[in-house]
Amino acid sequence: MSITFTDGFGAGTFSLYCNGEARQDILQHKINRVRVIRRADGYYAQFCLDVEHKEPGKYTGQVIGIDLGLVHFYTDQNGNKVDCPKFLRRSERRIKQHQRRLSRKFRKGIKPQSQNYHKQRKRLGKVHLKVQRQRRDWVIKLARCVVMSHDIVVYENLQVHNLVRNHHLAKSIHDASWSLFTRWLDYYGKVFDKVVIAVPPQYTSQDCSGCGYWVQKTLSTRTHQCPRCGIVLCCDVNAARVILIRGLEMLGIEWNNGTLGHKGTASVPSTEGTLGEMSTAVVDGQPDTVSAVAEPRTRIPCP
Ligand SMILES: [Zn+2]
């Protein structure tokens, strides 16, 4: 296949390489526009098509509240944690290595840098691209998996630019994939006909998931300990629960620690899918604590 641009920039004709599936799509559907993108390993043409993408989703009766974090990529309300895979760390190390090699070839004040400098520059670009793609691939697959296995997904709508102001490179690396992740959650929500909700992030880590009491803590405090109802939880799990409760509130469903009120049929035992080593014990012993104080949590509706 070949593609000819007639938009007045005089780019001319290019050969177009694509797999059979993409070729089918391009030939069958109406093309709205074409964008050409330059990457370190070549040029790509992006076709914007009108296609309705729906997949039959299975309804599992499961709900999930997601707390995005730095220590773990995310934590859900049952204490299940997902970490960034090790291979991403390894590939970040590769970037550093290539960056070092590049700066060793740099000569100050010399106008055209050496051939070897430019070769290395291109190599670095490709490494960056590979890392970016690995991360993207992982994040998208994770988002798909989360939406497929839950009916309601609630996440925290982080204002990433506020966070970046805070500190450290780790954050800015994470934040890119955070927003990528939530964007793909939204997308898969549409594809599988599931409910995906973003809730405002205010005080999700400070409020108590058991009674709604405001427990002030700093970022370094890793456990949530409520003076009012006596709940002790990992702070990420607490935040995930607060997020889930808020999201379900928007839908008019009450989440009474593991069981969905209102619908009654779908129940999520909080001990199910236990992963956390230390957090399990806490989660296990926890329902009693909450049901004892379940009453004060019911919020007074605004008049
Ligand atoms: Zn409490």
SSE layout and pairings?
Layout lengths: L1 E4 L6 E4 L4 H9 L2 E9 L2 E8 L13 E6 L5 E3 L4 E2 L3 H20 L9 H34 L3 E5 L3 H5 L4 H23 L3 E5 L23 E3 L6 E3 H17 L3 E2 L2 E2 L16 H8 L1 H7 L1 H4 L6
Parallel strand pairs: 5-8, 8-9
Antiparallel strand pairs: 1-2, 3-4, 5-6, 6-7, 10-11, 12-13
Description:
The protein contains nine helices and 13 strands. The protein has a five-stranded mixed sheet with strand order 7-6-5-8-9, with helices on both faces. It has a two-stranded antiparallel ribbon with strand order 1-2. A two-stranded antiparallel ribbon has the order 3-4. The relative contact order is 0.12. The protein has two domains: about 50 residues, no CATH class; about 240 residues, no CATH class. By secondary structure, the protein is an alpha+beta fold. The chain is flat, with a radius of gyration of 24 Å. Helix 2 runs antiparallel to helix 3 and helix 3 crosses helix 5. The chain binds zinc ion. Zinc ion (ZN) binds next to loops. The site of zinc ion has 8 residues, from loops.
Q: Unreliable stretches, pLDDT < 50, 5 or more residues?
A: 262-303
Element order: H for helix, E for strand: EEHEEEEEHHEHHEEEHEEHHH
What is the residue-averaged pLDDT? Answer: 78
| Gyration radius, in Å | 24 Å
Number of domains: 2
Structural class: alpha+beta
Q: Hey, roughly how much beta strand do the residues contain? A: 15-25%
Beta strands, count: 13
Task: Output the number of helix runs.
Answer: 9
User: What fraction, in percent, of the residue positions are helical?
Assistant: 40-55%
What's the arrangement of strands in the largest beta sheet? 7-6-5-8-9
**Distinct small molecules bound, one entry per kind:** zinc ion
The gross shape turns out to be: flat
Give the biggest beta sheet.
Answer: 5 strands, mixed
